[in-house]
Amino acid sequence: MKSMEMQLSLPMSAEVEKIENAARLIEKDVKCHHSIAALSRKVLMNKSQLKSRFRELYGVGPYTYLQQQRLERSKMLLLAGESVQCVALTVGFCGKQSATNFVRFFKRKMRLSPDAWRKLQGNCPQNG
User: Fold this and answer.
1) Which UniProt keywords are present, listed alphabetically (predicted)?
2) How far apart are the first and last CA of the chain?
3) Domains of the chain (ranges plus CATH)?
4) Spatial distance between the Cα atoms of 54 and 23, rounded to a whole number of angstroms
5) What CA–CA distance (Å, rounded) separates 16 from 57?
Protein backbone atom coordinates (compact mmCIF):
# COMPACT_ATOMS: atom_id res chain seq x y z
CA MET A 1 0.00 0.00 0.00
CA LYS A 2 2.78 2.45 0.89
CA SER A 3 4.53 1.68 -2.38
CA MET A 4 1.39 2.64 -4.30
CA GLU A 5 1.09 5.89 -2.30
CA MET A 6 4.72 6.76 -3.04
CA GLN A 7 4.22 6.11 -6.74
CA LEU A 8 1.24 8.43 -6.82
CA SER A 9 3.10 11.25 -5.07
CA LEU A 10 6.23 11.15 -7.23
CA PRO A 11 6.14 12.76 -10.67
CA MET A 12 6.20 10.33 -13.59
CA SER A 13 9.35 10.23 -15.73
CA ALA A 14 7.88 12.33 -18.58
CA GLU A 15 6.86 14.94 -16.01
CA VAL A 16 10.28 14.78 -14.38
CA GLU A 17 11.90 15.50 -17.72
CA LYS A 18 9.64 18.51 -18.26
CA ILE A 19 10.34 19.83 -14.78
CA GLU A 20 14.08 19.33 -15.22
CA ASN A 21 13.78 21.25 -18.50
CA ALA A 22 12.10 24.09 -16.62
CA ALA A 23 14.93 24.08 -14.07
CA ARG A 24 17.52 24.15 -16.86
CA LEU A 25 15.76 27.12 -18.47
CA ILE A 26 15.98 28.96 -15.15
CA GLU A 27 19.64 28.00 -14.63
CA LYS A 28 20.58 28.97 -18.18
CA ASP A 29 19.24 32.51 -17.88
CA VAL A 30 18.94 33.81 -14.32
CA LYS A 31 18.60 37.33 -15.70
CA CYS A 32 15.13 36.54 -17.08
CA HIS A 33 12.09 36.67 -14.78
CA HIS A 34 10.68 33.30 -15.98
CA SER A 35 7.01 33.63 -15.13
CA ILE A 36 5.14 30.43 -14.32
CA ALA A 37 2.97 30.98 -17.39
CA ALA A 38 5.98 31.29 -19.71
CA LEU A 39 7.76 28.30 -18.18
CA SER A 40 4.65 26.14 -18.36
CA ARG A 41 4.22 26.98 -22.05
CA LYS A 42 7.86 26.18 -22.80
CA VAL A 43 7.73 22.77 -21.11
CA LEU A 44 4.15 21.95 -22.15
CA MET A 45 2.63 21.63 -18.66
CA ASN A 46 -0.21 23.51 -17.03
CA LYS A 47 0.79 26.14 -14.47
CA SER A 48 -0.54 24.50 -11.32
CA GLN A 49 0.93 21.13 -12.26
CA LEU A 50 4.33 22.72 -12.97
CA LYS A 51 4.37 24.54 -9.63
CA SER A 52 3.35 21.53 -7.56
CA ARG A 53 5.56 19.01 -9.36
CA PHE A 54 8.53 21.40 -9.37
CA ARG A 55 8.16 21.77 -5.61
CA GLU A 56 7.98 17.97 -5.19
CA LEU A 57 11.16 17.47 -7.20
CA TYR A 58 13.27 20.41 -6.00
CA GLY A 59 11.76 21.19 -2.61
CA VAL A 60 10.96 24.77 -3.64
CA GLY A 61 8.79 26.45 -6.24
CA PRO A 62 10.16 27.81 -9.53
CA TYR A 63 10.41 31.41 -8.28
CA THR A 64 12.36 30.42 -5.16
CA TYR A 65 14.56 28.23 -7.33
CA LEU A 66 15.25 31.23 -9.57
CA GLN A 67 16.20 33.30 -6.52
CA GLN A 68 18.54 30.54 -5.34
CA GLN A 69 20.18 30.37 -8.76
CA ARG A 70 20.59 34.15 -8.83
CA LEU A 71 22.23 34.06 -5.43
CA GLU A 72 24.63 31.27 -6.39
CA ARG A 73 25.56 32.98 -9.66
CA SER A 74 26.08 36.29 -7.87
CA LYS A 75 28.41 34.66 -5.34
CA MET A 76 30.51 33.18 -8.16
CA LEU A 77 30.72 36.57 -9.88
CA LEU A 78 31.62 38.36 -6.66
CA LEU A 79 34.40 35.86 -6.00
CA ALA A 80 35.65 36.45 -9.55
CA GLY A 81 36.07 40.12 -8.64
CA GLU A 82 33.12 41.58 -10.56
CA SER A 83 31.70 44.88 -9.34
CA VAL A 84 28.39 44.89 -7.48
CA GLN A 85 26.83 46.85 -10.36
CA CYS A 86 28.01 44.28 -12.92
CA VAL A 87 26.77 41.38 -10.78
CA ALA A 88 23.41 43.08 -10.31
CA LEU A 89 22.92 43.49 -14.05
CA THR A 90 24.17 39.97 -14.84
CA VAL A 91 21.72 38.26 -12.48
CA GLY A 92 18.68 40.26 -13.51
CA PHE A 93 18.50 43.44 -11.46
CA CYS A 94 17.86 46.20 -14.00
CA GLY A 95 17.10 49.89 -13.92
CA LYS A 96 18.35 52.90 -11.99
CA GLN A 97 18.26 51.08 -8.66
CA SER A 98 19.74 47.79 -9.89
CA ALA A 99 22.75 47.79 -7.55
CA THR A 100 20.67 48.97 -4.59
CA ASN A 101 18.02 46.32 -5.18
CA PHE A 102 20.68 43.64 -5.63
CA VAL A 103 22.43 44.63 -2.39
CA ARG A 104 19.07 44.48 -0.58
CA PHE A 105 18.37 41.00 -2.07
CA PHE A 106 21.87 39.74 -1.21
CA LYS A 107 21.69 41.06 2.37
CA ARG A 108 18.27 39.47 2.89
CA LYS A 109 19.60 36.08 1.77
CA MET A 110 23.15 36.16 3.17
CA ARG A 111 22.77 38.59 6.10
CA LEU A 112 25.82 40.45 4.77
CA SER A 113 26.40 43.01 2.05
CA PRO A 114 28.04 41.66 -1.11
CA ASP A 115 31.29 43.48 -0.29
CA ALA A 116 31.34 42.21 3.31
CA TRP A 117 30.60 38.66 2.12
CA ARG A 118 33.38 38.88 -0.49
CA LYS A 119 35.87 40.07 2.15
CA LEU A 120 34.94 37.15 4.39
CA GLN A 121 35.71 34.83 1.49
CA GLY A 122 39.20 36.35 1.25
CA ASN A 123 38.77 38.09 -2.11
CA CYS A 124 38.88 41.82 -2.55
CA PRO A 125 37.22 43.36 -5.60
CA GLN A 126 39.60 44.14 -8.43
CA ASN A 127 37.31 46.48 -10.31
CA GLY A 128 35.44 48.31 -7.60
Assistant:
1) DNA-binding, Transcription, Transcription regulation
2) 60
3) 2-65 (no CATH), 69-120 (1.10.10)
4) 8
5) 8
Q: By C-alpha distance, which of 113, 87, 83 is closest to 30?
A: 87
> What own/partner pairs with CB < 8 Å and gap ≥ 24 does 92-99 have?
92/30, 92/31, 92/32, 92/33
pTM, two decimal places: 0.81
3-state class of 23 per DSSP?
A: helix
φ and ψ at residue 112, rounded to 5 degrees: -145, 155
In tens, the pLDDT along 88-127 reads 999 999 888 899 999 999 999 999 999 999 999 985 555 4
What three-state secondary structure class fits 22? helix
Q: Which contacts (CB < 8 Å, 24+ apart) does range 88-93 have?
A: 89/31, 90/31, 91/30, 91/31, 92/30, 92/31, 92/32, 92/33
